[in-house]
Amino acid sequence: MPVHRRREGAAAFVELDFPPVNAIGRDARRGLADALDWIEAQDGLDRVILSGRGTCFAAGADAREFDAPPVPPHLPDVARRIEDCPVPWIAAISGPALGGGLELALACRARIASPKASLGLPETTLGVVPGAGGTQRLPRLVGVERAARMVAFGRPVAGAEAATSGLVEALADDPVAAACAVDTARLREAAPVRTRSAAPAAAATLEALRAEIAAKLPGRAAPGVALDLVAGAASSPFDEALAAERAAFLRLREAPEARALRHLFFAERAAKVPASLAEIAPAPIERVCVVGGGTMGAGIAWALLSAGLDVTLVETDDEAVARARANLDKIVAQGLKGGHVSKGQADERRARLDATTEFGRAQGAGLAIEAVFEDIGAKRAVFARLEAALGAEAIFATNTSYLDPDAIAAGLADPSRLVGLHFFAPAHVMRLVEIVRAKETSPRALAAAYALAKRLGKVPVLAGACEGFVGNRIYARYREAAETILLDGSTPWEIDSAMTGFGFAMGPYETQDLSGLDIAFANRRRKDAARDPARRYPFVVADRMVAEGRLGRKAGVGWYRYPGGGPRVDDPLVEDMIAEEARFAKVSRRAFAADEIVERCTLAMIDEAARILEEGMARSAAEIDLVTALGYGFPRARGGLMFHADALGPARVLTRLEALAAEDAAFWRPAKLIAELAASGRTFASVGG
Ligand code: COA
Ligand code: NAD
């Protein structure tokens, strides 16, 4: 795995070869330094062409090295040597050129990219800023405004946009061949990027961008620092600004935010098919049957179509088929508006959809995904129809949120073909999918579920068949804690504001208003018979809201009011209702501070997650982190629920839970696993894996 170098006439070729993505670590930096020594010792060269072997130019600095002290040669020094090399370098970019990879390309005298290349500085998504000149060289090519946006949000651009913005000088299907053909005299004249000046941005533009960052990435440090550094490119001397950039990079990479984001980055990539299933090659699937075209079914169908699969969508009657089509049209319209899909692409995808009332039309589908009402009878009837319509090899998946997949499968001649595929709404956007292993689920069905997740570009997390699986089970405990705080002395807005202050994208009450209070209500009624009589029932206000038709946004009123369908407004009536219900329940209310609310809610979630781990319902703490961060808005900058729990430490978690148990032993009884970890000094991360 070296940096290859060779010479052909007056051209030298330097090729990065660090599979799978040419991440630039110590060996790559050394290899480049050696290549520079070799080039400087050659006579008669007129160009050096830098490229990457395989599918990437270079995916960036090797993030695995960020936990250790930096080792020379450092990337900024390598980049500077490339820029100052007596022989001009050209970056020939096929595939991703990201982070440190793009910084190397920026140090070259010219850049040629393939149209399919993606170029960007995604460092802020890892909690750092570019550390090898990216914040200074990029604005000198594309101007401060565009660079600031690219760096702050870390979103890469495709080849064509890179060409129109000036980031690359030319587009070519074969960038190496095009680099060979660049005119020698023109190349010699190309000035080093650092000697150019950066087009400044208006102060008002930068302020607007700062406000956008604060709104979209609340509580995150790196994007704001990146913005300041990029803005400085128009006014500060290059070397001074470069030193500031490096110092910021080194400072940020040690900070909790970067550690947490790195953890999630690697956890996402580790969420792959388990070794026990790796040998199973699932049959290729080209057609999928989706049953139900409501909120979930339509989103799932669009995700499948977007991944190139054919879809048969089955609904109950012609009217329902029309509704399903309308649901899909809405998704397409949003995609067109947001520029996520072109009209041509949308038409091609829609042409692969067959919406029908006939199960028979799904013949040949290798997989069926059921997304009908949350009702065991309806679901079992659907699978009976599917069993009759599809071949014995077809895999069946249920998108149930709470029902027991074993009970759903019980009517099938072969229950082992059924697996849970729990998508999140909107299913074409949310990257998380829980793969639920029922008792009977076969390895073949699980392998097919993993293969589908991969095809859809989703992050799969394996869950056992328990009430709510991983995510909803933890969320239910969170809700219960929040509801208790509410009854004992708080308000929806205080709780929401405490949780968003902690970094959640949305508080639990705003979330309920969005998803509708009736769903959780129906779920509570389903569980009434099995409820532990020793456990307090704090959902009295939530039940009353439903009884009064306050179902959330769709009713125009829920925990909040939404006058004219606009933004939420606190509702004093709700405060009165809570006070009244508390009186009925003989609760003497008291105020809760924001940090107390956060502590109770997070401890309740941690305790439930520990039980999930203890029971083997999740594979690892890292997979729980993925569920909470990707599916439930847990702050990414805290690395997910269990990463946060380890930051607190199991011993402290235990002490606090024990203190709360004095108040309500039925709710706060700590999981055995927490006590074990606290006693042995181990972390949650050490469990499973
Ligand atoms: N440092 C270290 N390892 C990296 C890496 C990086 N910057 N980028 C990717 N990898 C590793 C992944 O961990 C994974 O390792 P594994 O096979 O052991 O699990 C492997 O490379 C493949 O990555 P994956 O993301 O699964 O491949 P992909 O083909 O889906 O995507 C990229 C390729 C380049 C688009 C994607 O990996 C990416 O965006 N990388 C990060 C870019 C980045 O943030 N760079 C800035 C670093 S400061
Ligand atoms: P929905 O009410 O929006 O849609 C259900 C659809 O199923 C309707 O269009 C209905 O006509 C159709 N349907 C009912 N019986 C049918 C049958 N026998 N054959 C064909 N179609 C039938 O519901 P939804 O929100 O899409 O939820 C569907 C499933 O997904 C439920 O199990 C739910 O628990 C689960 N789920 C929902 C969400 C969410 O946020 N909405 C998230 C994850 C999982």
Strand order of the largest sheet: 12-11-10-13-14-15-16-17
Count structural domains: 3
**Percentage of residues in strands:** 5-15%
User: What hetero molecules are in the model?
Assistant: coenzyme A, nicotinamide-adenine-dinucleotide
Q: What percent of residues adopt helix (DSSP H or I)?
A: 40-55%
CATH class of the largest domain: Alpha Beta
Structural class estimated from helices and strands: alpha/beta
- The helix count comes to 30
The stretches of 5 or more residues where confidence is low (pLDDT under 50) are none
Q: Measured on Cα atoms, how large is the radius of gyration?
A: 28 Å
Strand and helix map with partners:
Layout: E1 3-8, E2 11-16, H1 26-40, E3 47-52, H2 75-84, E4 89-93, E5 96-98, H3 100-107, E6 110-113, E7 118-120, H4 134-142, H5 144-153, E8 157-158, H6 159-165, E9 170-171, H7 175-180, H8 184-189, H9 203-216, H10 222-232, H11 238-254, H12 256-270, E10 287-291, H13 295-306, E11 310-314, H14 318-337, H15 343-350, E12 353-356, E13 367-370, H16 376-389, E14 395-398, H17 405-409, E15 418-423, E16 432-437, H18 443-456, E17 459-464, H19 471-488, H20 492-502, H21 508-515, H22 517-527, H23 540-547, H24 572-584, H25 594-614, H26 621-631, H27 641-648, H28 650-661, H29 665-668, H30 672-680
Parallel strand pairs: 2-3, 3-4, 4-6, 5-7, 6-9, 10-11, 10-13, 11-12, 13-14, 14-15, 16-17
Antiparallel strand pairs: 1-2, 7-8, 15-16
Helix pairs in contact: 1-2, 2-3, 4-5, 4-10, 5-9, 5-10, 9-10, 10-11, 12-26, 13-14, 19-25, 20-25, 28-30
